[in-house]
């Protein structure tokens, strides 16, 4: 999944619980199942099995179903069928291998903002990403059949799913928090009843600290999606990894970061990415129309927009 993980458990003992040592193994197993960057992963094998039903593991099946739910939940804006569009945009390898790493992004953003080198949609380049409805699946046989022209990348949905799975296992020994690349699953308050504290970074200037602190005493999911980190150059233009399936191109929006609180990390991930694609006006309206969600949006000009429900976590 090409990301960093952080596992936290609150226990009475002063010694780290042995179960924490198992976390890297869990993620290695999930990586081997769900990563599109590994040519021998189960997902990569599925993507190569065109027009034939492939029986899949429980984990891949469950993530596929989570992706279907996320696509419906976000009105089709978050879908795993964007793989070919991401490859076309230049995201053809693990992000650490791309030309511009995280350290160079703030300078890159400032300089290119002055010269107008950000990629813009053109009618000739735009092409809708196919929906998951084109994929055939059989619950009884637990098979998935991909038609020609569709390959899957579970991306953030896999991260949110893995965060929740790991948190659920860790919660057996104490209140737990699992962070998988910004997709966070929380299992309730700390042992003394105090909340977990999660900071929201300032885009393009993460060294300056947090723009807000959020506090959580109940089980939930939290996710931040942003366009300031996974950026790279392609043909003299800045690209990023958030694909708008309506165009097949990196999303153009005034939102550079969205943080969402939801019942699960998968829902939070899908909602945050959806808001980045929708833009601030539609994104905030959509957020307010979903009573289970809370969020804050950071815009290109530095303005921060808050949903009404997010005030419960400040």
Can I get a quick summary?
This protein is α+β, with helices and mostly antiparallel strands.
Note the main attributes of this structure.
alpha+beta; 16 strands; globular; T-fold; three-stranded antiparallel sheet
Task: Reconstruct the topology from this structure.
Blueprint: E1 5-9, H1 23-34, H2 42-48, E2 54-55, H3 58-73, H4 83-88, H5 105-115, E3 136-138, E4 143-145, H6 155-170, E5 176-180, E6 183-186, E7 196-201, E8 210-216, E9 220-226, E10 231-234, E11 237-240, E12 243-244, E13 249-250, E14 255-262, H7 265-278, H8 280-288, E15 294-299, E16 304-306
Antiparallel strand pairs: 1-5, 2-4, 3-4, 5-6, 6-9, 7-8, 9-14, 10-11, 12-13, 14-15, 15-16
Helix pairs in contact: 3-7, 6-7, 7-8
Report what the structure shows.
The protein has 314 residues and is an alpha+beta fold. It has a single domain (5-12, 23-313), classed as T-fold, CATH 3.10.520.10. The protein is built from eight helices and 16 strands. The strands form five sheets. A seven-stranded antiparallel sheet has the order 1-5-6-9-14-15-16. The protein has a three-stranded antiparallel sheet with strand order 2-4-3, with no helix packed on it. A hairpin with a 2-residue loop joins strand 5 (176-180) and strand 6. It is globular, with a radius of gyration of 19 Å.
């Amino acid at each position: 999944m090409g990301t960093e993980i952080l596992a936290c458990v609150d226990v009475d003992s002063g010694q780290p619980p042995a179960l924490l040592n198992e976390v890297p193994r869990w993620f290695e197993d999930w990586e081997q199942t769900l990563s599109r960057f590994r040519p021998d992963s189960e997902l990569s094998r599925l993507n190569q099995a065109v027009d034939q039903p492939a029986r899949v593991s429980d984990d891949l099946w469950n993530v596929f179903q989570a992706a279907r739910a996320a696509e419906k939940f976000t009105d089709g804006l978050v879908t795993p069928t964007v793989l070919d569009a991401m490859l076309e945009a230049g995201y053809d390898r693990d992000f650490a291998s791309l030309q511009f790493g995280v350290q160079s992004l703030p300078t890159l953003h400032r300089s290119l903002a002055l010269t107008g080198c950000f990629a813009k949609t053109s009618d000739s380049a735009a092409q809708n990403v196919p929906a998951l409805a084109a994929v055939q699946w059989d619950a009884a046989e637990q098979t998935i059949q991909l038609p020609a022209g569709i390959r899957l990348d579970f991306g953030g949905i896999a991260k949110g799913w893995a965060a929740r799975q790991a948190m659920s296992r860790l919660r057996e020994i104490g209140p737990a928090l699992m962070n998988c690349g910004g997709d966070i699953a929380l299992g309730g308050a700390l042992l003394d009843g105090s909340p977990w504290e999660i900071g929201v970074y300032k885009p393009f200037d993460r060294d300056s600290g947090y723009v807000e602190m959020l506090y959580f005493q109940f089980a939930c999911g939290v996710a931040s999606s942003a366009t300031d980190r996974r950026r790279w150059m392609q043909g003299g233009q800045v690209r990023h990894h958030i694909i708008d399936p309506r165009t097949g191109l990196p999303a153009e929006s005034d939102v550079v970061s969205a943080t969402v609180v939801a019942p699960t990390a998968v829902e939070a991930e899908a909602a945050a990415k959806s808001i980045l694609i929708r833009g601030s006006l539609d994104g905030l309206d959509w957020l307010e129309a979903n009573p289970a969600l809370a969020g804050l949006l950071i815009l290109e000009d530095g303005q921060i927009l808050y949903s009404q429900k997010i005030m419960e976590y400040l």
